[in-house]
Amino acid sequence: MKQKIIQQTEKFVKDKLRNESSGHDWYHIYRVKNLSLNIAEKEGADHFVCVMAALLHDIADEKIAGTEEEGLQEVKNWLESISVEEPYITHILSIISTMSFKGGNGKEMESVEGKVVQDADRLDAIGAIGIGRTFAYSGAKGQLMYDPEIPVRETMTKEQYRNERSTAINHFYEKLLKLKHGMNTPYAKKLADDRHAFLENFLEQFFEEWEGRR
Ligand code: ADP
Ligand code: NI
User: Fold this and answer.
1) Which residue minimizes the CA distance to atom 26 of ligand 1?
2) Alpha-carbon dihedral 158, 163, 164, 170, rounded to 10 degrees
3) Which residue has the least CA distance to atom 27 on ligand 1?
4) Substitution candidate for ligand 1 out of 63, 137, 177 with most atoms within 8 A of CB
5) pLDDT exceeds cutoff 50 at 103
6) Which numbered ligand comes closest to the C-alpha of 172?
7) Nearest ligand atom owner, CA of 63
8) Rounded distance, CA 7 to CA 5, Å?
9) Which residue has the higher pLDDT, 154 or 201?
10) 101 has pLDDT over 80
11) Are 118 and 50 spatial neighbours (Cβ–Cβ below 8 Å)?
């Protein structure tokens, strides 16, 4: 029964994200789902809730839905239409709404399942995949990969992100290198340390090559 619900939901999400180019393509969802399962195993979280929340976590994002409310309503309608039991619906919606609430003043995740899926989403922004996504995003926005004349801003508002020039390399300092400090679960912290070290090695080599020293 749960397996069928997961399969139907995968198809629903895949169809919705078919033409998505804002960095929230289906394979981001695919990775977050697998990573959530991996972390859930170690942290003793409910697999069904983690997989469902991972699959649906970006549907309520402003970039995909008109507004967050419309997105959450759509997720609710979907879960009801495939007869997911009420306590599961409430739990999944609560995770998704906390996740799509952006910015530093976001609420703490209440359940271990929420912590797991949030960790998986953040992990997908670092490591080799995170580097790839950053350069892809920057390229799509017409940014340079690096420009020594553009300063790094330690804290950036959403407005600044939209309106000011940045580079792929600046994004490492503005966001990626900070993500490991925000992990909720012990196992995700371990994975984040590993991915973080990979970012640092990448940057070190990048600047050496930039100056022609390596
Ligand atoms: P999410 O909603 O999953 O947190 P975002 O929409 O903020 O992700 O970003 C999608 C991907 O694009 C992430 O890998 C992120 O690091 C990257 N990204 C976001 N903003 C920028 C930017 N200004 N420059 C380069 N990469 C960015
Ligand atoms: Ni995401």
Assistant:
1) 134
2) 50
3) 134
4) 137
5) no
6) 1
7) 1
8) 5
9) 201
10) no
11) no
